[in-house]
Design brief:
Elements (H helix, E strand, L loop, with lengths): L1 E6 L13 E6 L2 E5 L5 H5 L10 E3 L5 H4 L2 H13 L7 E5 L4 H6 L6 E5 L6 E3 L2 E7 L7 E7 L2 E5 L8 H5 L5 E5 L16 H10 L5 E4 L8 H7 L7 E3 L5 E2 L2
Parallel strand pairs: 3-4, 4-5, 5-6, 10-11, 11-12, 12-13
Antiparallel strand pairs: 1-2, 1-14, 2-3, 7-8, 8-9, 9-10
Helix pairs in contact: 6-7
Length: 244
């Protein structure tokens, strides 16, 4: 598996950057995880939109889906220009019928519901789900392929069930929208201390902090998480590529 950070920001993208978007690749399969604002512009540094094999969405907040329409039109235009491509599957929960309906567009993309109690097989990836604590229905995801595992928390306050869900993962891609002494629970987000605690209790091999705040000294997030987790910690940044 290879993970590339497309966008690490929560809420909205910083200048010339992107909010939530992550490219996960294995055995020639290209899966985009979330598709927030600015993702399509940054994604093209690594792969052409028409070469994606699948997209999976954690929830329907704009910083995770804003560029779905842009992706659809990119593929539509490339089709007009003569490129042959299939109907791109976009996997998401269908508990918000209005938002789910938008994922299907002409013969360009097709919304496919995932069912949180079941294992979803997408290309080489086996994906399991854990409902998170967030103001809207949202799901953390565990990706397994080639004997390796990566857990993406999506957006969530700390939740005890995430400990077993992330157990022994090679990489934990963990949201970290608040600093240690803040309280992110009411907003449905984690602090740096929450991220460190989750990584430690889940015994993960490596922690990557993402969905970052737009203020403060970001290195402080690493420092605070490190008081609870003694493994490698990285701040997500666009273009960072890792092998889980």
């Amino acid at each position: 598996m290879e993970l590339t950070i497309i966008g690490p920001w929560g809420g909205y993208p910083k200048v010339n950057e992107a909010s939530a978007g992550y490219l996960l690749q294995h055995e020639g399969y290209h899966l985009l995880i979330d598709c927030g604002s600015g993702v399509l512009a940054k994604l093209q540094n690594f792969i052409e939109p028409e070469k994606l094999d699948g997209v999976i969405i954690s929830h329907y907040h704009a910083d995770h889906i804003a560029d779905i329409g842009v992706l659809q039109h990119a593929r539509l235009i490339q089709g007009f220009l003569g490129k042959k491509m299939g109907n791109l599957p976009i996997y998401a929960h269908d508990l918000n019928a209005q938002e789910f309906k938008v994922l299907t567009y002409k013969e360009v993309t097709k919304g496919i519901p995932y069912h949180p109690g079941e294992v979803l097989q997408v290309g080489p990836f086996s994906i399991t789900f854990q409902k998170t604590n967030h103001p809207v229905e949202c799901y953390a995801m565990r990706f397994e392929a080639g004997g390796r595992s990566m857990v993406y928390t999506a957006d969530t306050a700390f939740k005890e069930e995430l400990v077993s869900f992330a157990q022994n993962a090679n990489l934990l891609l963990c949201e970290c929208n608040f600093y240690g002494e803040q309280n992110g629970a009411n907003a449905g987000h984690m602090t740096s201390f929450d991220a460190g605690k989750l990584a430690s209790r889940a015994n993960v091999k490596r922690l990557v902090l993402t969905h970052l705040p737009h203020y403060g000294r970001l290195e402080q997030l690493e420092e605070e998480a490190a008081t609870l987790f003694n493994g490698p910690i990285l701040l997500a940044q666009s273009g960072l590529t890792l092998k889980p």
